[in-house]
Design a protein that fits this description.
elongated; 9 helices; single chain; mainly alpha; cell membrane
């Protein structure tokens, strides 16, 4: 039993490393001009520089003086909290800030592999994992500083935790 669990853990680590390496290979040190990335980065900078009140006031002023509803006054602080340590260490490096998404995607794919390994045959598990790991849309998303992939990872693991909690409270497996 222990050897089988260690084998799955080793395979899960390999999936994580391969997934992260694949995304790192396609990264570029820039960003397109769409999306919410600038506000996430501004909020991360505010966390590091202890200027949260000023950031909220500045963005509230900008948003309230737009002709149309352009964006919220402030975004939820979870993703900027993940960006803040990288900004503190590397400054405004798009490459460094993209690592939050890369690591989140690697964790998601590794967790998905582990999830499948306990439910499917080995070949089906590998194929299902490769559908995510090699999906061009998901792999290409590494070049965005956005909360989508970290949210995918967090929500997937939250569902796994809920499943385990329900299985434990019901006295059996799901």
């Amino acid at each position: 039993m222990f050897r089988a669990k260690m084998g799955i853990f080793a395979q899960m680590c390999l999936v994580f490393i391969f997934s992260c390496a694949l995304q790192i290979l396609i990264l570029h040190n820039g960003h397109d001009w769409g999306g919410d990335f600038s506000q996430y980065i501004a909020q991360a900078i505010a966390i590091v520089s202890d200027s949260i009140k000023e950031q909220i006031a500045n963005n509230t002023f900008m948003m309230s003086h737009c002709d149309s509803l352009f964006g919220p006054y402030v975004y939820p602080w979870g993703f900027p909290l993940l960006l803040a340590p990288l900004y503190a260490m590397f400054g405004l490096s798009f490459y460094a800030l993209k690592m939050v998404g890369v690591i989140s995607f690697g964790l998601f794919v590794a967790g998905f592999y582990c999830f499948c390994a306990s439910r499917l045959k080995r070949s089906a598990c590998i194929i299902a994992t490769l559908f995510f790991m090699l999906n061009p849309l998901l792999v290409g998303f590494a070049n965005n500083i956005l909360s989508d992939i970290p949210y995918l990872c967090a929500s997937f693991f939250a569902i796994l935790c809920l499943e385990r909690l329900l299985a434990t409270s019901a006295g059996g497996g799901v």
